[in-house]
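User: For documentation purposes, I need each entry recorded in a consistent format: the amino acid sequence on its own, followed directly by the corresponding C-alpha cells. There are two entries in this batch. Please keep commentary to a minimum and don't merge the entries.

Assistant: Recorded as requested. Entry 1:
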Amino acid sequence: MSLYGHSSFWLDRDRLDTNDLVSLNSYKRSISNFVNIVTGRTDIDVVFSTGNDSYTDGKKVVISSDMNSREFDSTVGVALHEGSHILMTDFTVLKNLETLIPRRLVKEMMAKHKHQSQQEALAYVLPKVKILSNIIEDRRIDNHIYKNSPGYKGYYRAMYDKYFNAPIIDKALDAGLKTKEEWEDYLFHITNFVNPNRQLDALNALQEIYDMIDLKNIERIKSTSMGMDLSIDIFEIIEEAVHPTKEQDKKDQKQQQQQGQGQGNGQGGSGQGQGQGGGTGKVDPNNHDLPKGEPKKERQPTKKEEKELEKAMQKQNDFMDGKIDKKSISQDQKNQLEALDQSGASYENVAQSYGNTSPSGRGNGGGRYNPNEKGHIPRGTKVLVFRGLSKKLIDANVCDMIGKYESYEGAIKKGITLGKQLGRKLKIRQEERNTVYSRLNKGKIDGRLVAELGFGNEQVFFNKETSRFNPALVHISIDASGSMSGNRFEKAQIASVAIAQACSMIENLDCVISYRSGGRGVPHMLIAYDSRKDKIQKIRQLFKYIGTGGSTPEGLCFEAVMKEIKGSCGKGTDTYFINMSDGEPGYSNGDIRYSGTDALNHTKRQIKDMKMEGIQVMSYFIGSDYSMSNFRHMYGKDAEKIDVASVPQIARTMNKLFLKKNK
C-alpha cells in the first residue's frame, strides 16, 4: 500500500498540497461525500477545526487541516467515525449523563468511600461510567460501519493506527503489565478488548466483563441509553473487584486457601503444580518459569515504559471522548475556504497530451521539458474554475480577476441599457411560424371549402403547423488577460452585459458569462453569471468588481469547462458559444509553456470539439493589432471583427447565429 493507503485509488497524488486552500477545500468536499454516503444523510457539515471545535457537537464533523500523504487516510477515518456518532449516538444522553446515574448507586458510594456529599460521590462515579460508556458506544458504531460499509475499513484502520494503537499498548498487554486490581488497570484492559493481545485473565473480573460486552453480538445494543445501562452494570462489577465488601473479602480469602492446598495439576508452560499463594505456572513477562509454589509476580515497567504507556492511554481516552488534536485554520483562512466552497471552486486537469516530448518542442510552445529527463512526457496543467461569483468571493481575494475596485461600473450600466435595445432586436426567437396546409383528405374542416362538398370535392380539410424556437443557452467567454485592460475590456463588458440583459427578456433563452485569465500559478476561469440560477441584478451589483490581469490561457480554460458547456446541450436545447478576445493564446507555469502553434492548435481542437457536440460558435475579435488569420484558425470562418459595443452589429451577428442553427 502506498503512503496514501486507501486514498491512493482516487486521490491526485501528484497534486496533494494542503497548503493550497483550493486543494484543501476539494479534499474536504471529498471527505464530506464519504460522510454522506456512510451516514445516508446530506445535512451533516464537514468543517475544518478553528481551534475551538476539535470534535463533533452532534451536528457537524470537524476535521484537521493537516492532511499530508501520511495523515489523509486517518483524517477520512476520523470524519467517518464522527459522522457515525452523529448518525447513531444520542448526544442528549451524553450531555445528561450526570442525571442518569442511579441515586442508589451514588448513596452506596457515599457510604462505601465516606464521601461527604452526593456531589462528591457523583464525581467519583461519573468519569468512570463515562469512559465505559464511550468504549461501548465506539464499539457499537464501529461495528455498524464495518458491517454496512466494508469498503471504508481501510480508513478506520488508519484512524485507529494513529490515535488508538501504539506499540507500547501491545507490549503492555503481551508482557502482563497493568494487572493490579485497580480502576485504571481495568479500564486499560477493557479499552483494549479489541486488541488481539488482550489478556482476559489479567484481572479477576475481566472475563466476566468481556462476556457482558459480548463484542461479537454488540449490535444487540440498539441505542446509547442501552450502552449507558450496561456501563453502569460494569461499573458495579469493577467497583466490587477493586473495593470488595467485607463479606466478599472473606469469600475471596476462603477461595484462596482452598486453592493453596495444591489441588489439581498445574497449568502453563512449565506444567508444574500450583503452589501455595495461587501460583499459576505461567511464563512470566521476562520469559522465565515461575518457581513452584511462588505466586505470580507482575514485572514492573521501566520509567520510560511508564511514561510511554501513560501517554498512549491518555491518547486512547481522548480518542474515545472525541478530543482529537486537530490542526486548525485561521479566521481568514476559514473565510477564504467558505468563499471557495460557495463558489464551487476546483482544479480541472487539462492539456494532458499537449506539446512535444523532445527538445525540439521547446521552440514552438511544447510542453514542459527537462533536458535531464529522458523520454519526458508532459503532464499538462490544471485550471482553477470558480463556478459562482459572490460578495464573499470578492472579499476573500482568491481570484485574480476580482478586486475591490469598481473600474467598470459605467460599462455595466451602459450594457444594461443597450441590452434592452438588443432584446427587442432579438425578438425573432419568440415569434411563432404558422404554416397552413389546405385541401387535405383529413384534418380540420376548412369553412371556406364546405360549399365544394356539393360538387364532389372531399378534400376540404386543413392542418396548421406551428414552429417555435427550441430552448437555448448562450455561453459568453471573455478574455480577461492584461492586454484586454482598458477600452477593450470595457467594450467586452458592455457587450456581454447587453446580451445577458437581452436574453433575460426572451423566453427560453438563458445566458452564462465566464471570464478567463492567467492566475497565480494556474489559469483562472470564473463563471460569473448563470441566468438559470442568478438574477440580472447580480450583474448590476457585482460585475463592476471584475477586472483584468495575467496572460491568455484560452483553450486551457475552454477545456476546463468543456463538461459544463456540453452539459448545457440537453435534449431539445440549442447551445451557442460566444468568445470575446484580442489575440492569440499565451501562458506558462512550472507545468507547461502554452504558446505558438501548439497553443493555437490546442484552442482550435477545443472549438472543434464544441462544434462536434452541436454547439454553434461565434467569436468576436476585439482589437486591431493582431492577425485575423490566426484568429480564424482557432475559431473558424464565423469569427467576426466588429465593434462589440454596437447594438446593430451584435444583433446582426447573433441573429445570423440563431438562424443558422434553426434552418
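Entry 2:
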Amino acid sequence: MKPPCMDAAEYAGWCAMNTERWGRAKSPCTDCTTEFAAEMRFAGRCDGTPGAVPKHSSPFADSVKRRAYYREKARQARRRAGMVDRAELHASRVAKAHALQATGLSIADIALAMGLHRFTITRYMKEAAA
C-alpha cells in the first residue's frame, strides 16, 4: 500500500529496492528516517512512525524486530572485527619500528620510512621497550 508521503515514482523506486536479499520490508515506514518523516509531517503527508511498522501491518512486527536484531548483531560484529584489525595494525607498526631501530636508523629516518610522525615513532619505541 502506497503511503501518502510518497508519489508514485518514489514508491515504485522503493519497491524496486525492497528486495529479498536484505529482508523484505512490508512498508516504507520501516525504512523511513526521522528527518524525512518530519518534513512530511510539516507538509501534512505523514501518517506513520519512522522506523516502525505501521498499525495496519502489526502481524509483521516480529519480522521487523528480528531484522533489527540481526542488523544490530552484524553491526557489533563489524565493530569487533575492526577493533581487532586496528590492534593488529598497531602491533605490527610497533614491531616494524623496533626492527628499524635495531638496524641503527634514527627516529626521524624511521618516521620518514614509515610515513608517520616522529612523536608516534617515539611512543612506539616506549611501548616496545616496556
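Summary note for entry 2:
The chain has a mean pLDDT of 76.
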